[in-house]
From TrEMBL:
Signal peptide: none annotated. Keywords: Membrane, Transcription, Transcription regulation, Transmembrane, Transmembrane helix. Residues 137-158, 406-441, 658-677 are annotated as: Disordered. The chain crosses the membrane at residues 53-79. The keyword Transmembrane applies. Residues 421-435 have a biased composition (Basic and acidic residues). This is Bacterial transcriptional activator domain-containing protein. The keyword Flavoprotein does not apply. It comes from Micromonospora gifhornensis. It comes from the Bacteria. Residues 541-670 form the Bacterial transcriptional activator domain.
Length: 677
């Protein structure tokens, strides 16, 4: 048992804390008995190394060592108390139905002890009604992050309104679509640097929205760019207070996310403003952002003054929501002073532009910005407007990285300098030659992760209540060698401190294991050497069968057509196609690339152009955004003399790119709505 060891440890700590002070007080006395007199100080200066001074120095050292020990023990006690309080807060309370059932069971027990009742023959247990199970599940804790709610999303380093968060998720989806479009099928052994995950703040926003349903179309307070335009006064405003720079970064990100519909520049910023907002990243990131960077106020005034008069007339007659397309000018802290600002104010009033100064604004009103993102007008009693986006430097840099254009001078992907590990598709575990999928599998449990993830027990889908539990199953299916606790928590809850997630992970795992064990009696998830993995002896995974089929297609075979058809049959849809969990994107894209690599390789080696065209068309059905596949197919159609089909293929591909915003230079960075891959 553990309690004797814990008791001995507690006694040892108490002895260490109380023993030295008692010994020192008994033998030497208190450490301080008063301030030294002038004579004692003079004597010490004349002869510092005496028996008395050495004893005093050793005594002081002993007390300091004891104080350090006491401080360490106090810190450990505080940490343990905080962990205990956090565990108590996460402790699930019984639901009303469970409490009622427990009370009835207790009453029955006490009734049995006080009244003698003849025992009846044992009857087999009746199945529990589904409605009763649903009632018990209604009060079960949710897996969703508490930071996600209808009005916005909390991330490490800031807060985003709901519509801004959705634009971030759309931008992230478009990044992966661009990677799919630009990928050139090659050897499967070559590593792809553009499979690296997106920045942490982006994945945190994606995860917050992944399993959160879109709020109903009810009247909601304005947020995002509409709130930004609606709250800022005409002409310009200065911002002061602790939230000046966080609100300024939020303004920068919000305006760039909302300005992707127009070819004209919607945001103008000075070098000083960008430097104060982004720090050292302004030099490398600023030139790649869809905004105009100027050196001084005169250049900003000239750009605003040159606004198209036709666009101004349209803006005057436009509805209120169209005002989000006005030009904005960001100025640094001391750039709102001086006579040159007058020209900028006149131009902004004439064109409907908005000037935001990160400091005092002598030419207009100055508002107070708090750290939560609210602006306060000091001239109005009720001058608090809607909450705006607030970000620190790291969060703003992460979000701007997916908006910025690629850096041609950098060979690696602009979003990350780290090279992603090579993604290898797992194969169904076996000690013998890999086998193709069998129509009559031997295991009772089947995990389908290609398409809509489902766990089947004897062919019937098993309901998994928690989104985190389903993510664990899919994640372990994609990582057959297993994953440890940090890997699972970082994937499922990105951006959330690990110390607050261990209990949540254990709860999801316990609920998942209990659900599977109750339905099948099998133990599916093993925990060995601090790693979780699926037990291949008890569960069959379609993704592993796909790995087997790909392995057969990449080895020298006599019947290539049969091997390729086996790959197509084993790949009905993308990995977890109905889910938007951010950790899926690199694995999903790596899996897709393995298949189109085989497609192009077989088509290139195929002497029959008709057969090669069929292979390329199959690859296009798997990835309709890849440009290289369409180029190869169009070339073969031209060689076959079917110019009409080549033209139709090209037109259809351009329409596909147009629907997603991939072919529009002005919307090179963002689509207007969220894209599901």
């Amino acid at each position: 048992m553990r309690w004797p060891r814990q008791l001995m440890s507690l006694l040892s700590v108490l002895v260490l804390l109380t023993g030295p002070p008692l010994l020192l007080l008994t033998l030497i006395g208190p450490p301080i008995s008063g301030l030294p007199s002038t004579a004692q100080v003079r004597a010490w200066v004349q002869e510092p190394l005496t028996e008395q001074t050495l004893t005093a120095a050793l005594t002081i050292g002993a007390w300091l060592v004891w104080l350090m020990l006491a401080y360490t023990v106090a810190v450990r006690v505080v940490i343990r108390l905080r962990a205990t309080s956090a565990w108590l807060r996460r402790l699930p309370l019984p639901t009303p139905l469970q409490a009622t059932a427990s009370g009835m069971a207790g009453a029955a027990v006490f009734g049995v002890t006080t009244n003698t009742v003849p025992t009846a023959p044992t009857q087999p247990p009746h199945p529990v009604a589904a409605d009763a199970v649903a009632l018990q599940d209604e009060a079960s804790p949710d897996d969703h992050d508490e930071a996600t709610h209808d009005s916005g999303v909390d991330v490490s380093g800031g807060w985003l309104p709901r519509d801004v968060a959705e634009q971030v998720a759309a931008a992230a989806a478009l990044v992966w679509l661009r990677r799919r479009r630009d990928y050139q099928p090659r050897s499967a052994n070559r590593k792809d640097a553009d499979l690296a995950p997106l920045p942490p703040t982006v994945t945190a926003v994606q995860a917050a929205l992944a399993d959160t349903p879109t709020p109903p179309a009810a009247p909601m307070p304005p947020s995002g760019i509409s709130a930004l335009i609606g709250v800022l006064p005409d002409g310009g405003v200065g911002l002061t207070g602790p939230g000046t720079l966080p609100v300024g970064r939020g303004l920068l990100v919000t305006a760039l996310l909302a300005g992707h519909h127009h070819f004209a520049t919607t945001l103008i910023a000075t070098q000083a403003a960008l430097a104060s907002l982004l720090g050292p990243a302004a030099e490398t990131l600023g030139p790649r952002l869809p905004l105009t960077i100027v050196d001084n106020v005169d250049e900003a005034a000239q750009l605003v003054h040159e606004a198209d008069a036709h666009a101004i007339d349209q803006r005057q007659d436009a509805p209120p929501h169209a005002l989000s397309h006005r030009r904005m000018v960001l100025l640094g802290e001391h750039e709102g002073d001086g006579p040159r600002v007058k020209k900028l104010v006149e131009a902004s009033v004439a064109t409907g532009a908005v000037v935001v100064v990160l400091g005092q604004w002598p030419a207009g009103p100055t508002w107070h910005a708090d750290s939560t993102g609210h602006l306060h007008d000091p001239h109005h009693a009720d001058g608090t407007g809607p909450r705006l986006c607030v970000l620190d430097q790291m969060a703003a840099t992460d979000l701007l990285a997916i908006i910025a254009s690629p850096n041609p001078a950098t060979p690696s992907h602009p979003l990350t300098q780290a090279r992603s590990p090579e993604m290898r598709l797992p194969r169904q575990a076996t000690r013998h030659e890999p086998r193709l999928p069998s129509p009559t599998p031997r295991q009772r449990l089947h995990l389908r992760v290609l398409g809509d993830p489902q766990l089947l027990v004897d062919g019937e889908p098993l309901a998994i209540r928690r989104s985190a539990a389903l993510q664990i199953l899919v994640y372990l299916a994609a990582h057959p060698t297993g994953a440890d606790t940090p890997q699972l928590t970082d994937a499922i809850w990105p951006g959330v401190p690990r110390r607050s997630l261990t209990g949540r992970l254990y709860t999801a795992l316990s609920d998942l294991r209990g659900t599977i064990r109750a339905a099948s009696g099998l133990h599916v998830i093993d925990h060995v050497d601090d790693r979780y993995r699926l037990n291949a002896a008890h569960i069959d995974v379609d993704l592993w069968h796909l790995g087997t089929a790909i392995h057969h297609a990449t080895t020298p075979l006599t019947n290539t057509r049969t091997a390729w058809q086996a790959v197509l049959d084993a790949y009905p849809a993308d990995l977890a196609a109905t889910r938007t969990w951010p950790w899926l994107d690199p694995i999903r894209e790596a899996t897709r690339r393995q298949i189109i690599n085989i497609c192009v390789s077989l088509a290139t080696a195929e002497p029959d152009n008709h057969r090669a065209l069929q292979l390329l068309q199959a690859g296009i059905r798997i990835d309709p955004y890849n440009a290289d596949l369409h180029t190869h197919a169009s070339r073969i159609l031209t060689v076959l003399g079917d110019h009409k089909a080549a033209t139709e293929l090209h037109d259809h591909y351009q329409q596909t790119l147009t629907r997603t915003g991939l072919d529009n230079p002005a919307s090179h960075h963002l689509p207007s709505t969220s894209i599901r891959q």
